[in-house]
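Q: What would this chain look like folded?
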Amino acid sequence: MKKIELTRRTFISGTGASLLAAGSGMRKIVPEVAVQQAPAASTPLSGDSNREERMQWWKAARFGMFIHFGVYSTIGRHEWVMEDEGVPVVEYAPRAATFHPAPGSQRAWARLAKQAGMKYMVMTSKHHEGFCNFNTKLTNYAAPKQGPGRDLIGEYVEAARAEGLRVGFYYSLMDWHHPDGARCATDEDARKRFVDYTHGLIHELMSNYGKIDVLWYDVAWPLDANGWESVRMNEMVLHLQPEIIVNNRNQLPGDFSTPEQHITAETGGRAWETCMTLNDSWGYQVADDNWKTSKTVIRNLISCVRDSGNYLLNIGPKPDGSVPDPSVRVLREVGEWMAVNGHSIYNSDPCQVRRSNYASFTRVGNTLYMHVHFWPGGYVAISGLMTKVKSAKLVKTGETVPFKQDDFRVRLTDLPMKAPDSPVTTIAIECESEPTQDTDYVRKNKPRIGV
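A: My prediction, written as structure tokens:
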């Protein structure tokens, strides 16, 4: 059976207003929302007609950086600290005045992203705490009017563009600070005020920073697509940013799906992106030392890419904007690997080959890339490869790899006992046609002997 994983984001976005009522012990009250009807599954939505064109760069990019940064960073106890520890707004909000990220922090993030082989960045413009990292006319709870004293999103945009990276904004619909952020579920006047506020903030983000490539919604609690007026929201976004792509977390399908902390491919050709932390926290948590290794990150990236998915990997900067040393170390190691092997990741094609207990695979055209994460030394083999191999070489050194092939396996030989690359060694296998694998064929037809 598949392991079922529920994250707090997916749980909350799926429960809607019923969670508010259940948590208070009250009878569920459904708000009277008549602003629009939720679109039927077959109803064309804004952006449907040119989706492939808009998403072409994103599908080629494969690897991006997520950044969670806000007032919660000053506390260092996870980005959900306000709710998880029941901190009152009147106690939490003044911390915004103590938030003093160093100038130039975003330049360091962007340089690190580029060094890691990432092609785009997505930064929190507003997380659940309600604090806006950007310049807005709609609230004083914003970076230019609080401790930072400047537009952190503007600095981030400039930094990403300076490194040639695409620019994305994360935006949390859920808001623990705004007075209408919860009562909008049961009070229509509050809903209208809060939706106007939300659409207004998104309008500013889409209007004030030039071309934006990704809008990454999060947690639609406590409203549904009708309540958020999500169709109108996306129409506004695409009117202001005709080439942007949007995710599926405002209760509409959007352009791509967003599995969180697990790798689950979509079916039917739908685009998808796994977002994942480097430790167990999105925002800075000083005590969280459960860091992924560079080998784990690379294996996760390969697992996404082989099924045409993207990998959005998070950093949680410290309150001064510096990136924790373990994050820097891991991403630099990943970048060293990507500098040699990135051509097996970017612009890659779906890869049907996957059976091995020490390797994983990607494909570009007729070239199969065998990524050996547990290097056995001497030789490696692939069972049931159903196309002829023309040649093979070690990507790290360029050395030719001898091979023997029969109906049941390809055996790549004369390999060094020590892995030529770290933390994963890649072998490029040029095939006569698209490589596919059928291990059932091997099981059924391989000669057997008597007992």
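The domain at 8-30+46-344 is CATH 3.20.20.80 (TIM Barrel).
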